[in-house]
Specification:
The protein has 142 residues and is mainly alpha-helical. The protein has 2 helices and 3 strands. It folds into 2 domains: 75 residues; 65 residues, no CATH class. Strands 1-2-3 form a 3-stranded mixed beta sheet, with helices on one face. A hairpin with a 5-residue loop joins strand 1 and strand 2. Helix 1 runs antiparallel to helix 2. The longest helix is centred in the N-terminal third of the chain and has 73 residues. The termini are far apart.
């Protein structure tokens, strides 16, 4: 019985120390892994944010450009033919393949210019009647 008691006195503290060290090691390892995952997720979010901000800034600059050109071109001549403005919009659409449709709406909400920057879609269904607006279609080449 004495031998068992001496055995427990010697090895139980050693076993407890080993268990505590192992628990600390696993906790530290898991915490390091969680920190790495968190840093990775923050990097991904930052990268996507920068990408979206850059894309939005490009679209805002495009809208400002078209607004300035439209303002100069119209300058009180809204009822006149918009052929010069249509040409400007068409050239802009050719240079920016990311836009499918570019429209100019007047102050009443009527569509005055519409540029479709996509190949025409052929359908066997009956086409809707045209809206009361100027329409210019650009077919994109290969």
């Amino acid at each position: 019985m004495n031998i068992i008691r001496d055995f427990f006195k010697l090895y139980i503290p050693t076993a407890l120390v080993l268990v505590l060290v192992a628990a600390w090691f696993l906790h530290a390892r898991n915490q390091t892994h969680l920190n790495l995952v968190q840093l990775q997720q923050q990097a991904v979010v930052t990268q996507e944010t920068q990408f979206l901000e850059h894309g939005m800034a490009d679209r805002i600059e495009d809208a400002r450009f078209l607004a300035r050109i439209t303002g100069r071109e119209i300058d009180g001549r809204l009822q006149e033919k918009n052929s010069g403005l249509e040409t400007i919009y068409a050239d802009f659409a050719k240079s920016r393949q990311t836009y499918f449709t570019i429209r100019f709406l007047d102050t009443t909400g009527m569509e005055r210019i519409r540029i479709d920057n996509a190949p025409p879609v052929r359908s066997s269904r009956q086409q809707k009647p045209c809206s009361p607006s100027k329409t210019a279609t650009i077919s994109t080449g290969p």
